[in-house]
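Weekly puzzle thread! Below is a chain. First person to post its structure in token form gets bragging rights.
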Amino acid sequence: MKRKAGVAVIGLVALFALSLLACSGGGGGTTTFSLAVTGTPASAKVYLNGQPVENPQRITLPPGAHTIRVETTLSNGQVVAQEFTIVAGSVGSIQYDLSRYQIETNPATIEVWAGEAITVAASMRDLRTNNIVSADFVWSVRDTNRATVQKLTSNSARLTGVSRGATRLVITDARTGVTFEVPVSVLDFPPPPN
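Winning reply:
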């Protein structure tokens, strides 16, 4: 019985080694893997580990973990993005859909006075069904020298102006991984009287 188990283990190890060899394209040389990234809209920008990709349908990956980011800019200035963390060779393709969800914020246009705070509420709409869907948002800002954000509930946050300028409020749904970046203007002249 022990001999049969040993032979089975050796057989599994041999099959695993052969599968690694097949994924690497044969023997010798540097091991690389291919990845195709496709989806809607087809014009979305694709980044591999922060660097732009010229041909998303034919990406060559060295071994290891990699981050794929796909993004597009909407007519209202929001950036819609989705990130994928993969290990080279674990998947051969990634399918994204940046047109399915839309984050709606209240207020729709985000302006805040330096030294003041506003509450921003967000909801996620599934554009296929035109229904609001549950979301658990993670909140951040691109430039913390301009504004800061503090999560209040799963769909609201307090945005505080720090100094005059522009930044983006980054809202990510933890469930889908879809990210929206909303333009924020921080104003520095005195706020209007109450």
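Puzzle host: Confirmed. Bonus trivia for everyone else. The two ends are 85 Å apart (CA to CA).
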